[in-house]
Amino acid sequence: RDHLISFIPAAISKKEVSWLRTLRNGQANKRPVFYALGKLIPVKNFDLVIKSLGLLFHDHAELDWEFHLIGDGVELDMLRHLSDYHNLSGRVYFEGKLSYEESMRKLATADIVIMPGLKEGWPKVVIEGWSAGAVPVVANAGITNEIIQDGISGFIFEPETIHLKNVLFRVLTQPHLIDEIRLTGWKEVEKFTIEKFSQGIEEICSKRLILESST
């Protein structure tokens, strides 16, 4: 309806998209790499990731993977202890707080970017992941299900340990999914650029002017 406010998401410039794709540069990992980024606080729900990886390792120790967590915060010690409890040494790496450029360089080496948070606003890391060739795996919260098509442009999981573990098991045992969704993500990101936002604003203004001139 013309009287409703249009929502036009903007997350990244075309210049950033190009830079992130350059960082990826077609490189492949010896083993699948999972990545997550954020402040290590309760609302980010990173303990769910560690618990899910612990369950994955317990049930399928033969599967090879590694997980890198970027960030610092009050939960760092707890998450380290949780990782040790699940015997994840050599698989889980705490990278600490990094600059934006350093974080993006890490992201460009990842196959999967995990977003377990329950109260995310606009999830820019999804768009950054698409740009860098990392497949987003996100909790079913906020507006993520309006951005991601489950199994097509990423994966959505119910925020419970078993559900995330099952998604990660699926991508590890069906590696072609990563390649397929990576290609889709590179197309999807074009919808969320600043340039696309500017175009949307122009279209809204034009429609508004036409509407006013006809009344």
Give an account of the 3D structure.
- It contains 9 helices and 6 strands.
- Strands 3-2-1-4-5-6 form a 6-stranded parallel beta sheet, sandwiched between helices.
- The longest helix is centred in the last third of the chain and has 20 residues.
Could you give the topology of this structure?
Layout: H1 14-24, E1 33-37, H2 46-59, E2 66-70, H3 76-85, E3 92-96, H4 100-107, E4 112-115, H5 124-132, E5 135-139, H6 144-147, E6 155-157, H7 161-173, H8 176-188, H9 194-213
Parallel strand pairs: 1-2, 1-4, 2-3, 4-5, 5-6
Helix pairs in contact: 2-3, 2-7, 5-8
Task: Supply database-style keywords.
Rossmann fold; 9 helices; 215 residues
Strand order of the largest sheet: 3-2-1-4-5-6
Specify Rg, calculated over alpha carbons. 19 Å
User: Could you name the CATH homologous superfamily?
Assistant: Glycogen Phosphorylase B
CATH topology: Rossmann fold
Strand content: 5-15%
Counting DSSP H or I runs of 4 or more residues, the number of helices is: 9
What's the domain count?
A: 1
Bulk shape: elongated
Number of strands: 6
Mean pLDDT, all residues: 87
Question: What is the class in the CATH system?
Answer: Alpha Beta
Query: What percent of the residues sit in helical stretches (DSSP H or I)?
Result: 40-55%
Q: What is the N-to-C succession of helices and strands? A: HEHEHEHEHEHEHHH
